[in-house]
Amino acid sequence: MNSSYYPAGIFLAAALSALLLSCSPAGSYKMFGGYAQGGTYTVKVNFSDVKVSPEEVAASIDSILTLVDTTLSGYNGMSQLSRLNRGERIRPSSLLTEIYAYSYDMYRRTGGALDVSSAPLFDIWGFGFTADSLPEPARVSEALALCGMDRLAADMRDVLSEDGMLCAADLVLGGGEAPKLNFNAIAQGWTCDMVASHLHSIGVKDMLVDIGEIYCEGLNPSSKPWTLGVDRPVDGNETPGAELSGIWHSDGGAYGVVTSGNYRKFYVRDGRKFAHTIDPRTGYPVEHNLLSATIVAPTAAEADALATYCMVIGFDAAREFISGRDDLQGYLIYDDDGRMRTWSSSDFFLDR
What we know:
With 352 residues, the chain is an alpha+beta fold. Helices cover 26% and strands 25% of the residues. It has eight helices and 17 strands. The chain has helices spanning 54-72, 80-85, 94-109, 119-124, 137-144, 187-201, 300-313, 315-323; strands spanning 3-5, 20-23, 29-36, 39-46, 207-211, 213-217, 227-231, 244-249, 255-261, 266-269, 272-275, 278-279, 284-285, 290-297, 329-336, 339-344, 350-351. The strands form four sheets. It has a nine-stranded antiparallel beta sheet. Strands 1-7-8-17 form a four-stranded mixed beta sheet, with no helix packed on it. The longest helix has 19 residues, at 54-72. The chain is globular. The two termini are 16 Å apart.
């Protein structure tokens, strides 16, 4: 059965109920699933070479999701991220320091198009952790002045006090107003990779990890490489898999697969659509003809970040970027004078 995936919206956080275990049609496969803040998740695992019990695997996945929620979720008021954004002093976990360092590297690699310190912009446009919308230009300028990771330390660990603590203001080079961070463009993919890494550690070779974004490797229960449906980016298409643009075929390798688009999270004011993709370099929602970007990368975190990057820079720049990277596959859906058209890299294996 094909699995569908969809662009990140609300950050998917800790499990709210016990994981469900069930045997797949192939007896060696088991599926773990549960509810999480903002949605559900599914993990499919081939247990043929695994000595750990399914119950232990379920508990480990639950622990990972709980760790992510208590560290990175902006919707959990007691998470490390929420406390840091409120100005509290915290002792950052290794998860927080690692994803911060990765985000800083992505900021540099994308010329500022990916900026986890742009939380103030997402908040004032209503796509962050608030319900605001349609801000005045002066407010956009004020928020923009607080963004930009180039004004921050590249590594949290470099500014820890002797007792291993820090507050957000400690990150600012040369002083200034403390930043507010938002890891939504990376956190779901990062979580997929954390789950996959644990599964690797117990001997799993065939898996599909779906936590809003996708990591897949090896073969499915039918002993064939995984296949994933790419949703058609039609405004209001809220049901993953209901209307597909095509089916991507894996070759059995290890891949992160993520789609980002502006057709599920947006609002309309005075006949004008405001999408959730904000360009942190300008402070405004993007206005271009790229409808969705699907990226296949070595990790789900990279696929997550780069799918968002493509949505920021638009169709022409995204096509050039993907074409210049041998380690990526890409599939872009764009509007051409009212007609939906597609472009894919030569190695993106798609059935339409």
